[in-house]
Amino acid sequence: TGAALAWTHYLLKDKLEKVSPVINRRITDELERRIIIPCLKTDYNWMGFHKESLNNWTPWICSNWLTVVLLCDTNLERRLDAVYRIMQSLDHFVNPYPADGGCDEGPGYWDRAGASLYDCLELLYLASKGQVNIFDQPLIKNIGSYIYKVHIADDYYVNFADAGAITYPSADLVYRYGQSIHDETMKQFAGYLAERQQFGKKASGGSLGRQLPALFNINEMNGNADAPLSRDVWFPDLQVAIARSHAHSSQGLYLVAKGGHNAESHNHNDIGNFVVYADGKPVLIDIGVETYTAKTFSSRRYEIWTMQSAYHNLPTINGVQQSPGRQFAAKNVSYSTSDKKVIFSLDIAKAYPENAKIESWKRNLTLNRSQQVNIEDVYSLKECTEPVKWHLMTCIKPDANAPGKILLTDAEKKVELAYDKSQLSVVVEEVSVTDQRLLSTWGNRLYRITLTHKKQELKGSCKISVIYKK
User: Fold this and answer.
1) 321 and 394 fall within a common domain
2) DSSP 8-class letter at 396
3) Per residue in 294-319, pLDDT tens?
4) How many CA atoms lie within 13 A of 187 on its CB side?
5) Integer CA distances (angstroms), 374 to 128, 314, 365, in order
6) Do 204 and 135 lie in a common domain?
């Protein structure tokens, strides 16, 4: 609201003055009372001066605060103090950011994390006539390129944590970011987004500060469209591995898997989780999150089903799910790629509390480019009080009638899940979806497949294969 009022005052000051002098006075008085003075005098948590863990709020608020200061504060000394304070807050956000540029909040939040950081950097660049310029820094480049690296196909993006599977990055902002960091791939991706979003043919939405520069880039983006669809992507700091059957194509299988820890921003208990797409459409999924409520960001967050490991593609061990907290983390993470396959491995034992009684739990996820994904768990338990259960989430109604295989078939694709029928029994549970946020992505039904070990063993292994059927 503050930034919108600042732009309104800046662009329409003379016309508003003709309507009533009170309007301009009221705008500047309220901006000073509510934003300019408080932000100079108060160390809010999102500023990071007390070593808080920061997220998208920092650059998002700073971008609006900076807009207000640059456009409306006529006190030069105070304006300089505010700009310096904003730059300090942005440093607090950027300094701990992983070098690979990975956003642990997910692509849906990149719009107000990395993209809002860009809003700030662009304003600083313009206001200083290019003297404040860090667009050549590798981290800033990686934060930008993240958004096209996690693009799956169409409007689908990698969506761990609270991020949704479908998102719509601002075409113009992606273009301007790409232009600033001299990333031609990012600029071409912006053209692809512009085509999908009918950029220039209908209102682009978004904040006024983003809509205004978008007016000048319509022609530049036309005819320069391309989705990179990278074959392999590895974020070593974020511990996210991405692989697809063919470079520059959504055809075939797509695998993405994560390590990390269970205290990430907008965290779900999901260490070792993975997602599989076929021909650019979801098969084994990460559900995302329901519409936010007070409970979502309370001490009761993990009572919500979408946050729990039992509703991700993960095992429940001795009846115990993963726990939240920084200490619950992946160990021994490794990644390798070749023309024939990609392998992502990790030990997820420490993602579970002590009462799960796990000695080790190595998960190997392999994409064979010959159209198969293998999930293999090799484990050792201190005790086995009940059979291990492996959960798989899907948006396609499973056909589990034939022992040893589960068919996931719809109008667009056919995929088979193969498992050892002598080792595992299968139960399919329909999950009704009533939340509007999830309905808009998945429709009114999801399905949880649970494969239960027929024996109780201290040491063992389990292999599930996802086979693409043309």
Assistant:
1) yes
2) S
3) 999 999 999 999 999 999 999 999 99
4) 16
5) 53, 14, 6
6) yes
In a domain, 97, yes or no: yes
CB 67, CB 209: distance < 8 Å: yes
The CATH number of whichever domain residue 199 belongs to comes to 1.50.10.100
**Are residues 76 and 164 located together in one domain of the fold?**
yes
279 shares a domain with 191: no
Tell whether pTM > 0.90.
yes
Residue 226 lies in a domain: no
| Residue 241 and residue 210 share a domain | no
Q: Which two tokens stand for residue 45?
A: 């948590």
Write out pLDDT tens, residues 379-436: 999 999 999 999 999 999 999 999 999 999 987 779 999 999 999 999 999 999 999 9
Residues 6 or more apart in contact with residue 261 via CB below 8 angstroms? 271, 326, 327, 328, 329, 330
Asked whether residue 69 falls in the same domain as residue 101, the answer is yes
Terminal-to-terminal C-alpha distance of the chain? 51
Residues 317 and 381: their CA atoms lie apart, in Å, by 9
Is there a domain that residue 44 lies in? yes
Looking up tokens 């997910």 gives 106
Which domain CATH number covers 237? Answer: 2.70.98.70
Q: Is residue 227 part of a domain?
A: no
Q: Name the residue among 34, 132, 10, 43 with its Cα closest to residue 83.
A: 132
Which residues lie closer than 8 Å to 367 by C-beta, 6 or more apart? 243, 244, 245, 253, 255, 341, 342, 373
Range of the domain at 124: 2-221
Rg over CA atoms, the chain: 24
Distance of alpha carbon 272 from alpha carbon 35, whole angstroms: 43
Hey, what are 33's tokens? Answer: 């009372």
